User: Fold Condensation domain-containing protein from Adineta steineri.
Amino acid sequence: HKEHQAKTHLHQSLTFDRYRLSNEHRTGRGTTISFDFGQDLSHDFLIHASSNNTSLKHLALATYFVFLFKLTNGENDLCIGINTHGRYRDELESIIGMFVNAIPLRCQLDPHLSFHKIIKHVQDNMINYIKYSYFPLQHILNQHPNISNPVFLDTSFEFISSMRRDEKNEIMIGDSRFYLLPHSIQISEDEIMSKFDFILSFEHNLNRNELSCTINASLDLFNAETVCIIAQRLQAMLHQQFTSFDCTTNKPIYELSLALSNEQYLMQSLNNTQISFPSPL
Assistant:
């Protein structure tokens, strides 16, 4: 099973603005963009997780894989990096300590399956992979010495549950005051430190029971404007999938569209080939 888990050669062809010549040229400069789901979309997302008997994390992960499938123009054999809590046995749950381990998570998508079925596929896949999350990443990489740069680590996913309040970044425990560190380290007005090429983070705010998304991307590969458009496409896909008045979760995933409203209008205009001629006098 270790061999199955070590498909480190797989990666998705994201639409880069430029390419890095080698890993040595990584500058660490990145850009970040976030958006809130809002009450309505958060409600629909939560209801969808409940009705499909799945966790929010698994639903978010399925959404990410489908988004990558669309973003890469139909790449259906995907592999990303994901951190696991490493507590693969019940007796480890109560032990204090750092057990986090990064693993490659491969997902092979059938474009003709509905999003409902993709959720179940991703959930089963994740549960199966977690059984082997104790296996150190370095040991997996050592089984493939010909791979100098495991690209799956550069495209990552995380799901965060927090009690964060918007108005304050501190919590009190007894007489002690704790400050919450930002997920991204700001290095200038428009830039963050980025150790990944592309990472999508879902955050569930337990105080408000609402969700938000953050995309961090490397400026070595992406323009900031491109990341902004990618975030808009993700937001459009989320509304397309989960809002009750336009739900597409029963349709094959290849029918999903990432087109923005202005692009849809343009395509409709181009498809409207009817020509009106003036009536003869």
Notes: DSSP finds seven helices and nine strands in the chain.
